Amino acid sequence: MDFSQFKTQFSISLDAQQQAAVQTVDGPVLLLAVPGSGKTTVLVTRLGYMRYVRGISPERILTMTYTVAAARDMQARYAAFFGEEEAQRLEFRTINGVCSRIIRYYERMFGRTAFRLLEDGAQKSAIISELYRTQSKEFATESTVKALQTALTYAKNQMLKGEELSAVEVEGVDFAAFFAAYGKVLRERQLMDYDDQMVYALRILRQYPAILRDFQMRYQYFCVDEAQDTSKIQHTIIRLLAGQSGNLFMVGDEDQSIYGFRAAYPQALTEFDTVYPNAKVLYMEQNYRSTRQIVAAADRFIQKNHNRRPKHMKATQGSGPAVRECSVYDRQKQYAYLCKLAENCTEETAVLYRDNDSALPLIDRMDRAGIPYRCRQVESLFFTNRVVRDITDIIRFARNPNDGELFLSLYYKLGAGISKVMAQVAADRAEAEGETILGCIAVSSAASPWTQKQCKALQTHLNNLLRERADKAVYRIVHFMGYGDYLKERGGDLTKADILEALGEQEPTPERLLDRLEELQEVVQRGGTDAGCPFVLSTIHSSKGLEYERVILMDVADGLLPKVLPEPNAEQEELDAYEEERRLFYVGLTRAKRELGIMMFRKVGLESSFAREIFPLETGRAVQPMAAVKKPAVRKEPDAARIAAVAKDYIPGIRLMHKAFGPGTLVSRSGDIGVIAFDSGDTKKIAVSVALRVGQLRRE
Predict the structure, then answer these.
(1) Average pLDDT of the chain?
(2) Nearest Cα residue to 212 out of 245, 241, 246, 247
(3) Which of 115, 141, 208, 604 lies in disulfide reach of 192, CB 3.0 to 4.6 Å?
(4) How many CB atoms lie within 10 A of CB 463?
(5) Mean pLDDT throughout 202-208?
């Protein structure tokens, strides 16, 4: 059977670029497929071509993709074209699944038993929580456990070692030490997690050439889908497996690589023909999904990224409505706009956002108004986040100012220079003396005049915040009670407080906000009111691979989407993070088939460099080059290089003055983390460069 007969028999219709991809079988091949270009159809058709035209045995072909669901979908797509019996002869696996087979093969060959796979998510979370408690002396929140799980996955997939592990940041954790402790616990319990499967499989392939050779002999052709989401260790394993035959077909698009936090490695696509010198690089640039206006805007936007292949997306669907600028004053007006849109929604509409947190105020309003919607994969980690917990605990403490347990979890976060001993004594004495805890400290001879003054002010704030609207109370806690400074000093994220403030605008008192958070957590877990509702809420990450008739991108503002912006003369790591933000926005743009709207804010401080690129003529402003993009108007901070130079002089033994904790001595330092013994009797770990940058720390 020749190619023409093959197309006729199976009713296959392909454009010229797709046909070239299907027929290029031998050697290393990289296929770069823009959104909506039919890559899955091409991959499936190519497998049929290999089977029916080239006569290659299905058992010699291994197809790998990112998820189990994607592997099943691809097998079903192949069965629809070529029959169920043929589909069963082909192997469609995740890379983790391939690694599991390598480990099982090792067991059979040597008569050994590998570590048991840690499949129980609750057990893994318990181990992480236990280790966190040991290291930090605090209980881990659900969001902290999630952050540590993500960091562990990132470290193993990026194959990090030594100082690279120390550079991974998770709040409140020495990650290198945590990583080592986690690995030790798993080995002691003879367990391995899913990421360890790849670590051990790679070790087996490198240490036992006979096993590698057997897999290379079994499979002669390797196909990899969603290659832009594949990690460094996965690419290393693939390269070893395909090394003998050299027949590697990799499909992806570096412009759609948006999983950097999971260690996606788009460099494997941009460096493909360097790693594989005889490689062919093919393109599929026809977009069969979106209108000409949407394709033109998205393509123009992504061209400004630097770490990419030179390609252009081209429309085939003809003209449609112009990309719409949805202009509102601020985020609250945005929620009202979207609620109005949802009220009478009869056509498929997706509201897309960067983080799940963005949807919470919108879900809150829609639930109150009884407006139907459905959500894709909404996580409720917001409700257990440390920042949310701290702010709500401060509200609870305002309600019960004699609660010693609450106070002992909060006192050092309010910038009053209260020592641990002082806090404990006051907590013990307050109830017996009929005084608030802060009131006890305010008249204590053990407290400095400055601390006494701060405690009096804090108690006044606590009294006042209970009588004001919830959003005002949250703002007071963050901006007037020292909590915002505490967060900045530790490089914390204030966006959670912003969302809490937005939710508070709907509540008359902060105590009512506490009740609503419990209600809202249940609402979020339900995932919407109607599984068939045309109005969809989704993160851009969860929408990848999907398409909608109409898309609205919300929270498009510098600091939200994009979340990070590079300063002039930024380091490469910062530029790479920014380019991923641009890729995320591009993926959002290209989910739309017919209509695309972008929410824009008129309020100062919510400007959007991304939206200005999409609407350069309407705004009358030239698009800024990437290196010139600046952050929203905020307090000017010192130059990072100068701060780093100053921080080097902060060595053990020097005397320091901290804005919140007063005078002390730097007793030890590991990397940027310094241990300071304060004259008040407290000892704290502080990130030196962060404290210097925000003006919290200086030499005495």
Answers:
(1) 91
(2) 241
(3) 115
(4) 12
(5) 97
Instruction: Give the per-residue pLDDT at 695.
Output: 73
- SS3 of 620-680: the string is CCCCCCHHHCCCCCCCCCCCHHHHHHHHCCCCCCCEEEECCCEEEEEEEEECCEEEEEECC
Please give the C-alpha separations between residue 25 and each of 46, 92, 218, in angstroms, as whole numbers: 8, 18, 17
**What is the per-residue DSSP string for 59-81?**
GGEEEEESSHHHHHHHHHHHHHH
622 has pLDDT over 50: no
Task: Inform me whether the pLDDT recorded for 697 exceeds 90.
Answer: no
> How many CA atoms, within 13 angstroms, populate the side-chain half-sphere of residue 460?
8
* Helices 386-399 & 449-465 angle (0-180, nearest 10): 90
pLDDT of 619 > 60? The answer is no
Euclidean distance between CA atoms 607 and 691, whole angstroms = 28
Which of 349, 361, 312, 579 shows the shortest CA–CA distance to 470?
Answer: 361
Count of beta carbons in the 10 Å neighbourhood of residue 343 = 13
Indicate the pTM of the whole model: 0.85
Do residues 515 and 399 touch, judged by C-beta distance below 8 A?
A: no
Tokens linked to 92 = 């469609």
Query: Hey, what are 24's tokens?
Result: 């290029």
Q: Please state at what angle helix 175-188 crosses helix 142-157, rounded to 10 degrees.
A: 80
The pLDDT score that the predictor gives to residue 651 is 81
